[in-house]
Amino acid sequence: MPDMTESSNGTAISHENSEDEKQLIFSLMNRFYSFPSHYIGEIALFDTVYPLPLMPPYILGVINRYSIPYALFDIGLLFHNTPSPRGKVLIIKDDIDRIAFLIDDVMGITGIQQEKLLNVERNAGSNDLTEAVQSSFSWNGSDVFILDIKKILSHVKEDIGPQ
User: Which of 108, 54, 59 has its CA nearest to residue 83?
Assistant: First the structure.
């Protein structure tokens, strides 16, 4: 049986086999998403955002974490064209890029075996960033979509254009 601990909001966090890839599960607009936990640098409460001119609406601006600026992305606007509630911020490690994602809350961390991941079907005519969803898995009776940070960044670079 996996080791269990409790997250800040009282949900169970499972720590399974060390061969499993750890996923940080978060909620956003009543859906569950995840990033591989090795990408996560910090989880913080939403704070002051300094707007950036001429950016797509889903780039809210810059947040300051320990005197380091991070571009704050609103995944709700990016995926669903609906602003996310300003709950918490996932800070991605600096070796990826200096970015952060606005989320509702952290739900837990779980290990997931590669063979339990499900491919996500993509509609050829879709314009909703389904390419940014790597795969999915079932967690506590809900579907969780694993997001690909590199594909999200690629989409952002296309939207911003040459600088």
Answer: 59
